[in-house]
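BUG: 3D viewer hangs when loading the predicted structure for this chain

Environment: internal workstation, default settings.
Expected: structure renders.
Actual: progress bar stalls at 90%.

Input used:
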Amino acid sequence: MNDYEFDSALMLSGRYFDKIVILLDEVARPIHYPAPPELHQSLTQMVKGIFGDTGDLLLFSEPGINYTIVDLVEKRLIDIRIGLNRYDFQPPAGPERIFLVGLPSAESDQALIHCIIAHEFGHKVWDESDVLIRLQLSASVKPFMYLDKEEEQVAAVEVATEWLLELASDLFGLYIFGPAYVCAAIHYATAVTALDEASKSHPPTRVRLHLLFGLMDEMYTKSMNEQGGREFAYGPNMSQLFDMWRPAVDASRLGIAQMSSNVDERYARTAFAAIRNPDRVKELRSMARGLAQERYGAYYKQENYVRDMGLVRSIRNFIPPVQFLNEGKSELTSVPGILNACWEYYLGGLEQFGSVLPATISSDRFALSAIFNEFVLKTLELSGLAGQWREANGS
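C-alpha cells produced before the viewer hung:
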C-alpha cells in the first residue's frame, strides 16, 4: 500500500467509523439482552414467509412495553454501502432485509403474546402512498374538507393516515395468525393502554378491537341460525373470551374519551370520522387480505383453524403439537396453528395441564403458567427445526 492508498484508507475509516460503531452496537444487543432462543426459528420463518429468503432477523429483549423493529439494511447498511461504492468496495453477499426485533423484556418469555409481532412486520410491508390513494385520504375530501384552514386539513389527514396504517397492520396480523392474534391483542394492548385513549400515531384501542372483531367474526362464521345469529367456528374457550369482549367493542361504545398531549382534539375527531367510513373499512380489509396473500402466500382460513383445534388433544397429553395427520399423511403444523391451539388450551385453565406433570411440581397457577410457556416455546422451536429438516431433505 503506497502513501496515497494509506491516506485514503484512513480517511474512509474515519468517515464511516461512527456509522459502523452504531451498527455494531445494534447487532450486539441480542448478545447483551437475549430473548428466548426458541423464538428465533419461528420468527425467522415468518420473516422469510413475508420477505422471502433474502430476509433475516436478530432478536433481543429490551425494557419497556412496546415491540420494536429496525430494518438494519435500510437504516444502516445502505448508507455504508453507497458511501463505499465509489471506492470499488464490494460488500459480501448477505440478506437484503435484516430486522432487529426488540421484545418487551417483561413479556419476552410469554410465547402466546408474540403474535403481536405480525403487526410490526405489517408496518414494513405497507406502502404509505398506496394507502393514501386507495383510501382517498386528502384535504379535499370529507371529512377533512370541513376544517377551516388547509394546514388543519393536512394535519388531520396525517393523523388519519397514521391511524389507518395501525389498523391495516392489525388486520394483516389477523389474516396471518387468525383468532390467536385477537387473543394476544386483548391480553397485551388492553394492559398497556386505556381503551378510549387516542394519540397522534395510534387510534383508540377499542376502535382497533372493534375492527378486528368485525373481520374475525366474518372470517370464522360457520353458519347463520334461524334467528339471524351467527354460529362461530371458535373453540369453546376462545368463544367464552370473545363473548365477554364483544359488547365492550360494540360500535355504540366507540369514541375518544382521552387524548395524549401530542394530538389536537379537532384533528383526532376528524380522523376518527374518516377511519369509520364504511367504504374505507371495506377497502382496508381488501388491502390487508391481498397483502397477506401476496407476501405470506396465504392467510389463516376457517378450515385451517378448525383442523388445528384438533391439536388441543396433544397439548392435554403434554405432546408438542408439531405435526398432524391429513388423510393418513403426516404434515407439519404451521406457527399460526400451534399458537391458536395453545391459546385455546391456555384460556381453559391450566389445571389439566398440571395433572399430567410429576406430583413434585407445584400446582400454583404462576408455576404452571411458566412451565406452559416453556412448552409453547419448545414446540415452536421443534416446529422450526422440523421445517428445516424437511426443507434440507427436499420433502
